[in-house]
Amino acid sequence: MGDFDTVRELENELRKLKLELKRLEKEKRIVKKKYKVYSEATPLFLKELPKLRDYQLEALNSWLGRRKGIIVLPPGTGKTIIGLHTIRNLGRNSLIVVPTVELLRQWLRELRKYFNNVGCFYGENKDIGVITVTTYASLIRHKGLLLYFDLVIFDEIHHLAAPKYSEVLEKLDGKAVLGLTSTPEREDNRHTLILSRIPVVYRRHFKDLRSWLSEVEVVPVRVKLDEEEKKALKKIERKIRYVSGLLYSFSEEDEDYRDIIRVLMNLSTIKRIFLSEVKSKIEKAVKLAEKHFSERVLIFTESIKSCELIARKLREESINAQPYHSFHKPLLRLWGRDFNVLVAVRCLDEGLDVPACKIGVLVSSSKSMRQLTQRLGRLLRPYQNTKAVLYALYATLDEWRTVTRLKALAFER
């Protein structure tokens, strides 16, 4: 009877797989009928790709040995060019999946320098080329898109572990899959879902690439809160401690547990934003930018209010500064030419290529290793053969711990 049950279970599983294949094929026909599809042609190469650096070639060869894996490299070390060489080496229909529209545009610009027949599957643009760029959100709405491609590249692959995207992991059997990221680990530990199916095949840290990256000195700068700010911060921290204590009453599987985690995350964000808006930090950030007024300066903060306030105070001191809290490509091109100080919220934290910079000011930050890595990576690029400096402002013990993590990352370099 046991054997019979096993056979019956296998038959049921096979039936489910056939139904899923039919459903995907139907979706593929719908997509093909509704949108322009050019992916049947052979990729056309417009010109040769730039030569890979030694570590990039190592990474590519490590991936080619398995054709399914994740390459982990620090920001600014050329993960995109590895992706382009992967497409060139395989010569197959290729889909690139990205988390944001800004990254989608960035990939399209790079691809169209070297390849013909590049499609964009997003918003009103639904062209499926031999090489196509889409977003995670678009892919989850049009999973039949996967059927057109033999190679799938996930840029910032840690996003794939999000609950709304992770079902894509089950649709990748038989495909070559390349994941690119600087930090695959997630604070919610859902990265294990990805790593169980797509392993890390190559990983290098800042310290492994010393000869390719500029040196960065992290300079801690202490500031003080006034009495009113201290009271406000204590109130926020009391709420965090109270909500944290509620976690012990539930298991991780309970819906209430997940609700409490969401409340905690919101409270942590409120605390981080509050600390980015304290008076002494605003004043210190302005003074540090004034000190380096003739150089390109990047100021990281956590709220639009503090971003706008710092930029305005600098302009009042006759220093041309621009706030940057939503994607604005022309503004980045003008940075260092029409103005020197760029004050950014989180829109520069992931993936985007930004001009080289050697002076940074960290007004406030999360404890996330991903964010710290991305922000440090904005300065870890050769720039006039000089050492970069990152001023890290702190007003609390928690912020000091974040600064020490940042110093450890820079020391690893």
List the helices and strands and how they pair.
Blueprint (H helix, E strand, L loop, with lengths): L1 H33 L1 E2 L16 H11 L3 E5 L6 H12 L3 E5 L2 H14 L3 E5 L2 E4 L2 E5 H6 L9 E5 L20 E6 L9 H5 L4 E4 L12 E7 L4 H20 L8 H22 L2 H13 L5 E4 L3 H13 L4 E4 L4 H6 L6 E4 L14 E4 L6 H9 L10 E7 L2 H16 L1
Parallel strand pairs: 1-5, 2-8, 2-9, 3-6, 3-7, 4-6, 7-8, 10-15, 11-13, 11-14, 12-13, 14-15
Antiparallel strand pairs: 4-5
Helix pairs in contact: 2-3, 7-8, 9-10, 12-13
The main sheet comes to: 9 strands, mixed
Mean pLDDT: 83
> What's the number of helices?
13
Low-confidence stretches: none
Could you spell the SSE succession in H and E letters? Answer: HEHEHEHEEEHEEHEEHHHEHEHEEHEH
> What is the CA-atom radius of gyration, in angstroms?
24 Å
Strand order of the largest sheet: 1-5-4-6-3-7-8-2-9
The count of strands amounts to 15
Which outline best applies?
globular
Q: How much of the residues is beta strand, in percent?
A: 15-25%
Folded structure, characterized:
By secondary structure, this protein is an alpha/beta fold. Helix content is 44%, strand content 17%. It contains 13 helices and 15 strands. Strands 1-5-4-6-3-7-8-2-9 form a 9-stranded mixed sheet, sandwiched between helices. A 6-stranded parallel sheet has the order 10-15-14-11-13-12, with helices on both faces. Strand 14, helix 12 and strand 15 form a beta-alpha-beta unit. Helix 2 crosses helix 3, helix 7 packs antiparallel against helix 8 and helix 9 crosses helix 10. The longest helix is centred in the N-terminal third of the chain and has 33 residues. 35% of the residues are buried.
